[in-house]
Amino acid sequence: MRDDFKIYFYGGAFNPLTLTHQKIIDNLVSELKLNSCTDDNDILHIGVTFHDYKNYEFDKDLRMKFVKEYMDSKYLDKFGWEVSFQDERTWNYLHKVYTDDTQKYITLIMGQDEYDDLKAGKWRQSDDILNTYNIKVIPRTDGVSSSKVRELIKNKQFDEVKKYVSDKTFDILKAEGYVK
Q1: How many CB atoms lie within 10 A of CB 2?
Q2: What pTM did the predictor assign?
């Protein structure tokens, strides 16, 4: 295995995928020069969370569809990436998917709010995560959140929803009967 092998892991509910999520992905691709990556070993791994203890507005298949449709439309065959269900807590999931030998090559991508929770010990195995992985914090600058989009949908403010999700995500929401 190469010394410069990299795995970038970005997990989230994507409930639904917003323009902010897409901006984070696009900025990562640009900053990390993944579009010019010619080595198949470097990968952007996006984990769509699915935890039994959480209530999601959109089911896991639909949330997966939001992310996969975006990645396919923008990055199909551009570099190594994958989207998968993250069905366990981050520590357990990464140890299930990757071997002990590859753990040191993983960089976790997260927002400031998640990082603050991690540092405060609110994640399972917070100390292990902080001591094992590189972490790249992405600041939230635009105030767009999935919670806001869900609230707009609940209040039937469909024109407002269009301001916070891509046309593709909006079309999926419309096809599924969530917006008009």
Answers
A1: 9
A2: 0.89
